[in-house]
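Subject: Protein entry, chain in single-letter code together with its fold tokens

Area: Proteins and the way their chains fold up in space.

Attached in line: The record itself begins immediately under this heading.
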Amino acid sequence: MKILIETYEYEAEEIRKELPGLNFTEHGENHLCSFDSVGYFYNTEINDCLFFLPKVLLTDDNYNDKEEGTNTDNPTSSGDRGNLILGKYRPEDIIDIDCPKNGVIVNDQDRDFIHNFAIWIYRTMAVYREKNIRESSIKNKNIAQLDNSGSPIAGSNLDNVLALIKFHNENRDFLIFSMQNIKRGYNKINWNKTIATRTAIQQTNGSFLYMDPVNKKKQVNYEEELIIIFYSILNYIKKIMGFNIMFDLNFELISVEVFQNVYITGYGRSRLLQIKYKYFSDKSLYLWNLCYRFFDRCSDMYSSSQYEEYLLSVSFESVFENIIDDLIGSQDILDELKNQRDGKIVDHIYSYDSLVNGEQEIYYIGDSKYYKIGHEVKGSSLYKQYTYAKNVIQYNLDLLLSEERGRSTRNHKYMLPYRDPVTEGYNITPNFFISAKVDKNAASEYDYDNPHLEEHRNAGTGDKTVTHVQKQFENRLFDRDTLWLSQYDINFLFIIALYVRDNDFAKQHFRNDARELFRKRIIPIIENEYYFFIIKKKTDEKLQDIVDRNFRILNGKIYRPFSKDNPNDEILVLALEKNPVDASENAKVRSHLSQDFFLYDGYSLDTNIEDFLSERLEYASK
């Protein structure tokens, strides 16, 4: 197995030696080359599988603080060559993962991980192709679609290899039973034939000894031959292609040399055709088909020096975005919210519980960032994300204004309460980036089952990324122009495994968990900057009148989390910055509000408001 890493810069001469027949373009005078594809490629000149693996395997230790827009995602300077796979290996040293060079030793654990990771990438590309058959960024040749069982109809060489390995893993009992059944008669003697055809030697004690008895083994056992061919294929896959397949067989297998020079080049297909109708069980027939497909494709490859097959994406960020949206996004979303009127396209948007724990939902707006490990979002991407949020808010306001003027539209059901008409406060809009990570210890943890969704950490320092905020006024959290933006990492192994398995129940379970997790991750970030209070009016005066009288001091600081039809519709949430520019401002605000409101401090956004008030009032009564 050969591997290249997407966007990594290799010495051009090195690639010519390692991978003859591979086409590429050198970068100017540096004599470097890089590959923008992700996926699988097979060419008879290489006579091996070549995988282009995503750059998410690389640590981004050499990343500098250039503005995005200067192509820092796909650098062409030699400085990028310092990145390491899993924080350990230079990509140029392990192009041949099974025979690394320059004295590099790849331990068995890391080699197995990279082998398995390559297969997961291939399967990811195959599933993406099935779902996006007209996607122009996918290039494929001789890659078949899958049947209802997930097996290739007439698949690529790699498809056939994976199908054979899958059969071995899933049918161990059948294979063991078949081998035991074959051997059952090996040592049973046919005495009638032995006495009739063999000469006995009389021993001193009077007994007779037959030196060459006739046993009951059949002269031709086609079941045995099929089993031997199957395991010889697995042995070839293990020895030549590097797949880690564990089996213990007491049969004498076809040697790798004979298998490669005789069976692969045409005899394997011919021999299988000769014994095609010797099997009766469904599994034996299926095994015959798997073996025949393998030899058939190999024969095609060896009969043509121009033969090649590939499944490649020339824009893997589109694949990554599709995976994330499939796992966390909402398909039941208004098109105008995703494809915005100024031409911007939101990667992921869905409605979920508001950060202010009332009865409302709010839109969560996410953007996928396909980077190397540890790469921090900078530059134009930040400002684009703010614009996405502003457009969503404005669209909801347009719906609100249309409703107020009696112009009910078909899109009314998509309107969420961004602006409270009583306080004129704006709900907090959750806005985030999500990028993939592959932990440096991935080979030892092999964790394809846990998302490990957490705040992004800088590759160099390991510190959590600073959350970005854009605002026009200090100390106004509930202001339309106060927008928070955070970045999160998710386990890349988990998302590709969940995507490939295509289990709707598992996806929905993760979707629910992820949405709740995003909410829980964002809340502490905001609470780190603000104190929150629950306030209730002291008198029977109308809430609107009290707010209007104090509007100057309350503007942007209060929000009503309940609708007018809710019995708690006069409860307000107050937010004050922990470190305002004017250190005396918060004391003035609280003093002023105490004339008309009861203030209950210590409120957390993650706490139910009714429960919080009930506990505070019960405590006060004691």
